[in-house]
Structures are given as C-alpha cells and as structure tokens.
C-alpha cells in the first residue's frame, strides 16, 4: 500500500473523528492491539462467509427499516456509540463549574428517584391488596366452616365432629388457591358434605314457595303467610310452635300501620289470650262433666258456673255477693278473662252492682274495650279509697285494675297462677292506660317490655330450657325482634325464627336495622332492631349451593324493603354456584330464551342479568359474561367482550371441547343474530387457523385471499396497508401472528418444492405449475409480506420481524 493511500485513510479517520465530536458528546473508545485484532477478525468472517447472503440480509434490512424512514448509516453510528454499561450513572465526570452537566445529572437523579419511589409504592399497594384478599378469603372460609358446624344435620356428636373435621381438612388443603363456592365440600371418603334439610325446614320452604308463587300471581295477599305457616306447624304436630303462629295470626288482624304505636298489636295479643282462656275453660269442663253439671243452657255465664263447679273458689268474706252459688267477683273476673263484657254485665246485674254493670256496657261500645276518662277517674278514686289495701277480694282488685288501667296488688296464687293470666292483666292495664295521663299507677307498653325482657329476663323464665315459652312471652308483649333473635340461637328452632321473621317482615311488623353490617339484633334507646338481611343470608348459607332455586325463594323476601341487597344476594348466588342456566336462563341456538328461576320473581330479567354479567367479567369469568351480556340484551358489550376473547384464542390450536372451540361456537351463534365486521373477521381467522393446524395450507391461503387482509403480491401492499388502518385493535393484535403463519406456510411450500425431484414431482400439479415459477411466486409473496410488515403503522414485536426476515432469508 503506497503512502498516498495511507495518508488518505488517516485524513478520512480524522474527519470522522471531527464529525463525531461535532454532533454530540460521546465517550471515546480506546482499543488495544488484541481488541483491534479480534474486531478485524470478526469483520473478516462476516464478509468472507456467505457474502451474498450477508448482502441480501442487508438489503432486506434496508427495505424493512428504510420503509419506515430510518437512516441506516446514522443508526449504525448511534448503536456503536451506545455505552455497554447498564448502571444508571453519569455518562461523564462532572466538573464543579459544569452547570449544564450538573443540571443534567440532577434531572436524571430526580427521574430515577421518582421511578424508585413509584416502584416501591406500587409494590406496597400490591402487597396490601394481596394480604387483604387473603384475609377476606380466609374470613369467607371461616364463615363456611362455622355454618357447616352450626347447621349440620347429623344426629350424633361424633358425626358433627367428623363433618367439621372433613370441612376443615378440605379448606386447609385448598387454602393456597381460591375454592369456588360451587365446589361441594368433600369428606375423607370423597362424598360431598351436603346439608340435609330437616322435615320442618322442608315443610316451611314448600309453604314459602307456594306463598311467593301466589303472591306474585296476585291471587293472594301478604296476610295469608301467617295462616300458611300455622298450617305447617299443625301438620308437623308442633303444638307449642303452632301456638306462636296462632298468636301472630290474631295480632296481624289488628295491626296498626304506625310502627311506633303497637297498641293494636297488644289488643290482638289480649284477644288471643281471652280466646285461649275460653278454650281452656271448655276443655276443663268437658273433661269433668260429672262435676261440672254444665246443663243444656248455652252461654259463657253457664260455662263459667260449670268451671267453678270443677274448680270452686271460696268466698273471701261472709257478705260477698254470690251468683248461682259462686262468688260474683270470681265469675266477673273469668267473664272478663274470656273477653265477654256482656256476660260480665249480666253477672253484675244479678249481683245488684248496677254502677259496675254500666261500666261494662261502656266498655262494650269502645273498640278497644276502654272506659272514658271520667269513668276511669271515678274507678281509680274508688279503688284508692276502698280497695288499695291487701285485705279486699283479690278478684275485685284485679277487675278494678283492668278497668281503670292501674297497678294493683295481686294474689298470684289465686288470680295469676299462670304466666298467661299475669300477661293478660298487664296487657289490659297497658291498653286502658294509653288514653290517660301518665302517673305512678299506670304502666306503658315500653315499661312492660322492659319488665319482661330485662328485669325478669331469660333467667327468670328459664329460657334456655323452655325457649318456646320465652319467645311466647316476648311475642305477647310485641317484642318481635327479641323473640326472633332468641329463637335463632337454637338449632332446632332456627327455621321457626326465620319464617316468623319472614311473615312479620311482610306484614310490616319488624323494625329493621339501618346498616347491613350490624349484628343480628341492634338495641338502642328507641327500641330493638332486627338485621333481616343478615338473618336470611345466614339461614340460606347452608343449602344455597345444593338448592340455589330454594335460596332464591328466601332472597325474594328481601326484594320489597331491600332491593339493592336482594340484587346483591342474587348476584353472589349465581356467581358462587355457577348455575347460570338454572338461575338466569340462556339463549338457545334458534335465538329463543330459555327461562331461569329468576324469571319467577321479576318481569324483566335484563337489569339483574347485566349486573351479574358485569360482576362475572370483573372476576375473570369472561366466557360466562359473554353469554350473560347476550341474555341481558347488551349486544354491544357482548360483542366487544367476545372479540377480546377471540383475539386471544384465534392463533391457538383448539380441539373439540376446548376453550377456543367453545368460544368459536359461541361467536358463530352470536354472529347469526348480532354481528360486526370485527367479529366476522375474527371468526374467519379462526377458520384460517383451523385449516393451518389441519395442514390444509392451500385452503388456508385461499381463505386469506378472500379476506384480503394480508398481501400476497407486491401490488396489494399499499391497499392492504390502508385496510389495516381500518381494523380494530383486537384484529391488529392478531395480524403479526397471521403474518408469521402465512410466512411459515410459504416456507413449507418452498421447501417442499426444493426437495429432490422424486418427491416434488407429485406435488407440482397441486402447486399449480412448474417448480421454478412456483418458487418465484412464493418469493414474491414473501417479499410482499416483508414490505407490508415494514409499512403498516403498527409496532410489530421484534420477534415477529426476526421470524419474517429469517423465513425470507431461508428462501434465498
């Protein structure tokens, strides 16, 4: 090499160095002799080995990147000038007086600090979310375990313990992953742990189902529910429980719509006790006819005389008035106890107590059997003057106390030996005192309720040994919320408590808690409140997975007063049990709608179905959400979600029964009634991939030609690029894989033709012409795809570009 050429090379190198330093500040790279030797050897190998291929690769790279406006020589210089260090540090040493460098470093440091803080905050938020989700999941599992333990239908303690152990083992073994609530709990033997409904629960549920059906159809009103439930207790021969229902049946007829005024309920309770006392008198008399001497004369007076013949009451003093051989005051008491003021008046007339007979006549004319204010004052004055002491007739004191509505000393052994007698006297006093000014001798309903539930309380009534009797006392005093909560504590009586609550709620007799997160019973200064939704959901938790349709019947009781809670319960029930078709219905292949259990309770299912669909989509149940959006009439959202799912499954191989196959059938069915260009195109692309996986390459290419989304000739590139701009995002995401698949098909065809002639001759007719001509056609198609990939306004993945280039290079 002569000196002039060496001088030219030196000058050219200096010019390049000057240009590098003139454009931007880049670090100088100083190489030693071994490094220069290695770099030269590498360059020589790249040039010497397969020079035509390297040149062709450079051409391809120029076509691919040049079509996007990239300057390759300048790009090479920029790539070679990039630092090899990955650390985030200053690129150069900063001098104390270098203000520009200092500001640059400060900016970079600030950006890095923001990135680090954001990453830390994000990680903390993710950790907090995961921990919260795990806590909620564990709380849900604990509630299920407790529910299975509380409501277990096994009869022995060993069976209950085994059911609990089976449930706990299943929960702990699956604690690392979310257990869908539709998966039945399994015992050690593998059998599902199912909560069996007791005969009482089955009968109550049937009665509630029939009542809901009749109520929805309009053939029955809500007042009939107490009667229906009472029939259930009678059929089951539960006498004590039947008494509760008979009491409620008597109280509901006299219900006052004012929630704060339960006087009408107390009147109904008093009338129930009076009717029951009359029934007891008849039972006693007819059981002792040889002593009663009933005779043939009808009427309550003769019945009382016969009763006193069986259970005689001695006179308290010699001058006491007598009627038919019995003390008049005892007969008047039993007449009032039976609620027969006409009989009491008749007895008073016979005993010459005309003033008292007038008071009974006045009570007859009042709807609540109360005296006027003047009459009450006169009676109280007489009582205070003549009867306030303890030496007078106990029956006389009770009669005056009932009429005047004031507290009187009672001889409980003679007059109020039974709790029903005591409560009847107290209820009469409450009713009589409601129209009078308050004084120390009167008692209000609130005071009576406090006396029974707080001062006497559960211990006095031995409530845990006789829960029905204590609930009976609470119901008589109109403490419905306390009675329901108390009964619900006992497993055998849970079903009675729930159905009493359902009946009273429909009658408007329950005071409802305002917050759904409150405990079952809430007490404050204004009274007691029942968390009715919590009661229903707690009761249905045991069988909602095995009997979801029955759970819907109970959830329907929430609809009028808690519509939002009702919708929430329905949504959770559907998502937890996965019984979408059974509960919500589905769309048939012919476009018709198959009705679900929900259609019984709503006129239009679409609102609730849409809410369930949104929740299903939020929980990742996308396939189910597609069907629900379709069922709910949300066609646009259905198609939108379906196209997103199809875009993820288009390129996958999907045998029959796979997720891809199911989505393909769903899309084909939906396209019959509601279609969009995007949906139809994705369905066609799925068909294209079906051909590809079945190795039907010619059919796949023919379909692609008809779709006109990928150019198979250079003349179509510009047109297809314009077409690409009109595609939705879902279709655009599929195009890169489609390009790779088409290139794979072309590569396979190219290799097939390039095989030895003995193999290729049989394929030439199929490929449509001579081998050389076909090879050139395949190369031109591959070239068109490469140009298309470089021109589309979409950032293709680097792996896709590499595959396309390698595939075309293999055809060289």
Automatic annotation (TrEMBL):
Transport is among the record's keywords: yes
Signal peptide: none
Gene Ontology CC: nuclear pore
One Pfam family hit: Nic96
UniProt KW keywords: Membrane, mRNA transport, Nuclear pore complex, Nucleus, Protein transport, Translocation, Transport
Single Gene Ontology MF annotation: structural constituent of nuclear pore
A Gene Ontology BP annotation from the UniProt entry: protein import into nucleus
Predominant place of localization: nucleus
Location(s) in or outside the cell: Nucleus, Nuclear pore complex
Record carries keyword Nucleotide-binding: no
Domain of life: Eukaryota
Family: Belongs to the nucleoporin interacting component (NIC) family.
PANTHER family (UniProt xref): NUCLEAR PORE COMPLEX PROTEIN NUP93, NUCLEAR PORE COMPLEX PROTEIN NUP93 NUCLEOPORIN NUP93 DEAD EYE PROTEIN
Identification of the protein by name: Nuclear pore protein
Record organism: Galendromus occidentalis (western predatory mite)
Taxonomy of the source species: Eukaryota, Metazoa, Ecdysozoa, Arthropoda, Chelicerata
